[in-house]
């Protein structure tokens, strides 16, 4: 079993899980799905630079064998942006729940009673 | 220069009127009349040279790349038109002063009117067809504003909307036609296009160009079957009807046909489309006018008919017919504007426009009746008025068309139309001014003051002059304008009332006699017509509009369903289809031959953990907190993978982000419903699972295919080689972030800052309204520790804070050369502060915080941008970094790079955004908890 296979199949599992969860009808599951998808995308971007073991991209004279620094730099910012996006989506779903009393995103009216009646 | 001044004057007046809308009526009329008069004076000064054959031109380059210049010219046709616009404009402004009631906002009215005047002048003077289009649309817009001037009236609003829909729709067709015309002719300059008639007519685009341009012209000039907007536009104040809807705007279509005559006319297609449309319109309008009872509606249908006459003449495509058309433009402008003003006076004095409630006004309003009767005589084509001459010319040309082998129907139908127009004209005059006295709402109406009647005196005198001294008054202008229309030397011109006994005279006489008889026998027909449902295109139009709106709503509802699931499914499905398409194309997505790396047992175990954790997250529908635990397992495995695969920076970032992400979700889940969701139906789940499986396998295969191929030489080697010599750092990833690709990073931190601000905007008002009510009613539905702030936790985090800050600083400083940097340092610092919030509570921590998140984000972006701009001061490009080595006593050799300032900015923004998200969220939760506690205390007390 090669490292490449592990990474590729890991990406496959994460993508499949992410897509499935993102297609669910509640905000929290959608958020989880997007998180899984983000992991998959970041790993994929990273894998574009090929897998290298024990050659961190720290410059030293004469070294020619090193991990590709560019995908790493791009993925680093992507990880941080992913956090920003996740935070925004989480807050958005929270606010929409607070406004509407429902955490559904499937467009079907929820049978949740309005505030003041639900937990009498 | 005079041309530019001519062009600017009305717009300047419109602006002044709009700004001074609160000023007095005298001032408003002064500005509008002054601008019109000044324009007219400029035009008269230029007239001799233009009529002598040297057009004025002016040009300012505007968008040369598009072939669009502010290019103006004044040739005889433009002169004729501009003269009409300014002359009648001046009279209408004076008339409006008398017409508008004291309380009406004259500033607004005249401002719109001058805007319209400017747009019309623009059409007349444009020497560039793209420029002309702009003014063309502007006339539709200003017409909309003017028709809807009395905006509290429903008929005015509907009429305005209908006029805009029809003329604006035609304008769209015209845009397409003009663009095609410019392509076919190879230029958008009108003067150039006019010389390329043969090229354009030989072009395969010619039928399309002609059809589209005619759509524009016919809608504007109210030709059948687009005529219906004009009667509804009569809801406008009467000065507007006199100006826009008889004398000028509706003639813009006729003007366009005349303007493009050398390019488009002459073909059979032109004849059949233009002449027959004109003929049908002429006949139709005259017929309908005979049976309407509202003064302005009669005039509107008469205008439609007369416009049809001009269009038909231009459609004949002969120079003599063009002469007749040009002369009739002048005649019609004079008598029809006078008639509209007359109708306005009658309406003003008697309070009604219903011809059945009027009669015998000649005795009470002698001046009005005289002027009205004279103008009607011109409309009917009776001698000695100009209308007689042009109508006779029209009949003669219709005979010529038949002699040229066109259908004998042309003269026959033209004579019938002339007969009908005699009939409605006679009815219009006799029913109002003669016979049994009927005075509408008023007992004794009288002639109005000079402001209202003066302009129509002038117009009637002109109409009379056109008949008595046609060669002196109109001759030179008609001759030169005809020359401009046909693009050559004008034909010999002989305008006179008497041309001896000829067929045209016979047809004319026949029309008068039969017309008079027709009027005599009108009543039974009218009674018969009254019994049937009124034929009104408005209902068809409204029906069509309603249908369009309904279909659009259906379409947008079909696409824009309020279901995120459907959007995402489409999105994923399309992405998967693209992937399948790429895999199926020849070449496909084969794996490469690159040597793979052996996997250690530890790696296999980690992989296994990842797969299992993902499976649990997906399956964990009921245990939401447990799902979060397994999400963090996945994040941890990925961080380990980064460690193993030579990406220490990524591993550090991933771990730190993982912590804040989980904290965020925990806080959110705290407030979100924890009720287990209903499962979707089994088919739905199977469908989604299938899509997910295909997406997963496809993505995994793509990753595999990439990783097993050899890496070609990429830009990365440049980064590697220049990192130390150029960027002064050995951590290539960090140097890339703060130097090579610093512009990307700058954009990214700005996005992050915006996300932080958006979160603030979303949460800050959450305490109000429905959301606030729900928050207040929120109850703990999870078991929780009886101790709010466990002491061990509090003490440990407080001790950790300085240590964590120190670690952050350390990571920050070493970042340029070793794994670390602004992003990671900022995340570490954020976590340290967040721990205080968690352990000691929101209030305690918030009280001790010195810097808010907003300034932090702002300062961060500013520092980063300033660093980038700093390099400009030294003549380098934006975001170029610089570095040097300094010896500091005791510390030793130290490297300082400007990139470090940039990294400081990055760190500030990241801390700000992370804190914003989490602190705001915990604040909301805190508020909810506090509300609950208060409520509990109240109930227990």
From TrEMBL, chain A:
Keywords, comma-separated and alphabetical: Cell membrane, Membrane, Transmembrane, Transmembrane helix
Subcellular location(s) per record: Cell membrane
Cross-referenced Pfam families: Oxidored_q2 (PF00420)
Family label: Belongs to the CPA3 antiporters (TC 2.A.63) subunit C family.
GO cellular component: plasma membrane
Protein name: Multisubunit potassium/proton antiporter PhaC subunit
NCBIfam families: PRK09094.1 (NF006573)
InterPro entries in the cross-refs: CPA3_antiporter_subunitC, NUOK/Mnh_C1-like
Topology versus the membrane: Multi-pass membrane protein
TM spans (from-to): 6-23, 30-53, 73-94
Main location class: membrane
Species whose genome carries this gene: Sphingomonas aerolata
Automatic annotation (TrEMBL), chain B:
Keyword Membrane appears in the UniProt entry: yes
Domain Na+/H+ antiporter MnhB subunit-related protein: 793-916
MrpA C-terminal/MbhE domain boundaries: 684-764
Topology class, membrane: Multi-pass membrane protein
UniProt record, GO biological process: monoatomic ion transport
Subcellular localization(s) per the UniProt record: Cell membrane; Membrane
Protein name: Multisubunit potassium/proton antiporter PhaA subunit /multisubunit potassium/proton antiporter PhaB subunit
Organism encoding this protein: Sphingomonas aerolata
């Amino acid at each position: 079993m090669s490292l490449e296979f592990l990474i590729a199949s890991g990406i496959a599992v994460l993508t499949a899980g992410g897509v499935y969860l993102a297609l669910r009808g509640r905000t929290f599951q959608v958020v989880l799905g997007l998180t899984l998808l983000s992991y998959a995308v970041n790993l994929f971007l990273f894998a574009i630079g090929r897998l290298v073991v024990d050659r961190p991209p720290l410059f030293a004279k004469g070294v020619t064998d090193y991990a590709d620094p560019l995908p790493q730099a791009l993925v680093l910012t992507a990880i941080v942006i992913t956090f920003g996006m996740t935070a925004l989506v989480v807050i958005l779903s929270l606010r929409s729940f607070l406004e509407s009393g429902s955490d559904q995103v499937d467009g079907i009216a929820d049978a949740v009673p309005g505030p003041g009646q639900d937990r009498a | 220069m005079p041309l530019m001044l001519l062009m600017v004057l009305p717009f300047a007046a419109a602006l002044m009127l709009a700004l001074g809308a609160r000023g007095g009526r005298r001032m408003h009329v002064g500005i509008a009349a002054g601008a019109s008069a000044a324009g007219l004076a400029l035009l008269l000064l230029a007239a001799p040279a233009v009529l002598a054959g040297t057009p004025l031109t002016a040009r300012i380059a505007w968008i040369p790349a598009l072939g669009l210049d502010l290019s103006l010219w004044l040739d005889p046709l433009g002169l004729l038109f501009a003269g009409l616009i300014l002359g009648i404009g001046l009279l209408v402004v004076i008339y409006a002063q008398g017409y508008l009631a004291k309380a009406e906002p004259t500033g607004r009215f005249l401002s719109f009117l001058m805007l319209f005047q400017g747009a019309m002048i623009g059409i007349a003077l444009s020497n560039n067809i793209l420029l002309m289009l702009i003014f063309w649309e502007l006339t539709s817009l200003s017409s909309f504003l003017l028709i809807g001037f009395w905006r509290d009236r429903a008929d005015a609003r509907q009429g305005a909307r209908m006029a805009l829909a029809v003329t604006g729709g035609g304008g769209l067709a015209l845009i397409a036609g003009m663009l095609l015309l410019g392509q076919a002719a190879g230029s958008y300059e009108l003067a150039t296009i006019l010389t390329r008639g043969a090229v354009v007519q030989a072009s395969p685009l010619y039928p399309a160009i002609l059809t589209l341009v005619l759509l524009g012209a016919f809608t504007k000039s109210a030709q059948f079957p687009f005529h219906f907007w004009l009667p509804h536009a009569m809801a406008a104040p009467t000065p507007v009807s006199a100006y826009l809807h008889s004398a000028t705007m509706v003639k813009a279509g006729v003007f366009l046909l005349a303007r493009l005559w050398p390019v488009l006319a002459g073909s059979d297609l032109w004849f059949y489309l233009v002449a027959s449309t004109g003929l049908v319109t002429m006949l139709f309008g005259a017929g309908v006018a005979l049976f309407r009872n509202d003064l302005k509606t009669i005039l509107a249908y008469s205008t439609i008919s007369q416009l049809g006459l001009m269009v038909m003449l231009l459609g004949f495509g002969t120079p003599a017919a063009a002469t007749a058309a040009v002369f009739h433009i002048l005649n019609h402008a004079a008598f029809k504007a006078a008639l509209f003003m007359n109708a306005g006076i009658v309406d003003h004095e008697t309070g009604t426009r219903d011809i059945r409630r009027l009669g015998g006004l000649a005795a009470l309003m002698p001046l009005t009746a005289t002027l009205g009767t004279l103008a009607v005589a011109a409309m009917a084509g009776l001698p000695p008025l100009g209308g007689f001459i042009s109508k006779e010319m029209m009949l003669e040309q219709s005979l010529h068309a038949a002699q040229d082998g066109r259908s004998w129907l042309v003269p026959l139908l033209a004579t019938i139309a002339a007969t009908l127009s005699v009939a409605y004209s006679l009815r219009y005059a006799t029913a109002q001014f003669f016979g049994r006295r009927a005075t509408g709402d008023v007992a004794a109406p009288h002639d109005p003051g000079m402001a209202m009647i003066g302009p129509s005196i002038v117009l009637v005198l002109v109409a009379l002059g056109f008949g008595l001294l046609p060669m002196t008054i109109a001759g030179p202008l008609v001759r030169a304008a005809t020359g401009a229309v046909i693009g050559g030397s004008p034909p010999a011109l002989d305008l006179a009332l008497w041309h001896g006994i000829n067929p045209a005279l016979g047809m004319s006489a026949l029309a008068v006699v039969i017309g008079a008889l027709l009027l005599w026998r009108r009543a039974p027909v009218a009674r018969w017509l009254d019994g049937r449902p009124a034929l009104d295109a408005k209902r068809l139009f409204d029906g069509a509009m309603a249908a369009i709106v309904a279909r659009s709503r259906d379409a947008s509802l079909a696409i824009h369903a309020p279901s995120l699931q459907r959007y995402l499914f489409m999105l994923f499905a399309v992405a998967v289809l693209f992937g399948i398409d790429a895999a199926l194309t020849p070449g496909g997505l084969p794996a490469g031959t690159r040597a793979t790396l052996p996997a250690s047992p530890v790696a296999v175990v980690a992989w296994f953990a990842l797969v299992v954790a993902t499976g649990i997250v997906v399956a964990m529908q009921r245990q939401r907190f447990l799902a979060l635990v397994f999400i963090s397992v996945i994040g941890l495995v990925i961080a380990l993978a980064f460690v193993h695969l030579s990406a220490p920076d990524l591993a550090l970032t991933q771990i730190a982000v993982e912590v804040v992400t989980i904290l965020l979700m925990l806080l959110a889940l705290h407030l979100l419903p924890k009720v287990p969701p209903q499962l979707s139906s089994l088919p739905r789940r199977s469908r989604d699972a299938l899509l997910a499986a295909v997406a997963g396998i496809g993505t995994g295969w793509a990753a595999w295919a990439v990783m097993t191929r050899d890496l070609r030489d990429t830009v990365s080697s440049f980064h590697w080689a220049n990192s130390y010599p150029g960027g002064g750092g050995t951590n290539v990833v960090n140097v890339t972030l703060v130097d090579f690709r610093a512009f990307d990073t700058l954009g990214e931190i700005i996005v992050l800052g915006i996300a932080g601000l958006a979160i603030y905007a979303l949460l800050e008002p959450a305490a109000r309204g429905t959301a606030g009510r729900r928050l207040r009613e929120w109850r703990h539905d999870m078991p929780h520790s009886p101790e709010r702030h466990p002491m061990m936790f509090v003490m440990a985090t407080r001790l950790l804070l300085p240590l964590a800050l120190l670690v952050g600083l350390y990571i920050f400083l070493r970042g340029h050369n070793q794994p670390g940097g602004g992003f990671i340092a900022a995340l570490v610092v954020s976590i340290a502060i967040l721990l205080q919030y968690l352990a000691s509570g929101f209030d305690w921590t918030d009280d001790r915080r010195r810097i808010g998140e907003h300034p932090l984000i702002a300062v961060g972006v500013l520092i980063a941008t300033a660093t980038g701009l700093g390099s400009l001061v030294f003549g380098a490009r934006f975001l170029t970094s610089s570095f040097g080595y300094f010896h500091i006593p005791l510390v030793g050799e130290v490297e300082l790079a400007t990139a470090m300032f940039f990294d400081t900015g990055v760190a500030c923004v990241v801390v700000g955004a992370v804190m914003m998200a989490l602190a705001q969220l915990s604040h909301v939760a805190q508020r909810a908890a506090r509300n609950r506690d208060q409520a509990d205390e109240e109930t227990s007390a």
